Amino acid sequence: MTRSLVIKVTAGEDSPERCNQAFTVAATAVASGVDVSLWLTGEASWFAVPGRAEEFALPHAAPLRDLLAGVLAGGAVTVCTQCAARRELTQQDLLEGVRIAGAATFVEETLRDGAQALVY
User: Which among 11, 2, 68, 63 has a CA at the least distance from the CA of 38?
Assistant: First the structure.
């Protein structure tokens, strides 16, 4: 059985430490060879837009753009369908490799054998 990690980040610049923790755990897991799916919801949805992760800064933390690049290189990044719609974001607005999907997909990923889900 392969272990996987599904991480949902619900915070963005409104809660920078919580946001950065989610990206740090996701990038660390990818670097460790874990199958990772990072879900961007709420204000975190903005980090799927080109240039937005570069604007985020948190003292003593790895740059969010680097963490996101690491996850995109070896894992999956998804923006919640409803969150994207509320921010008028379409697939064309997002970084290459980021998808838009809804709750059914999230539930499917979290219920797979060997999956561990974390919410930040």
Answer: 68
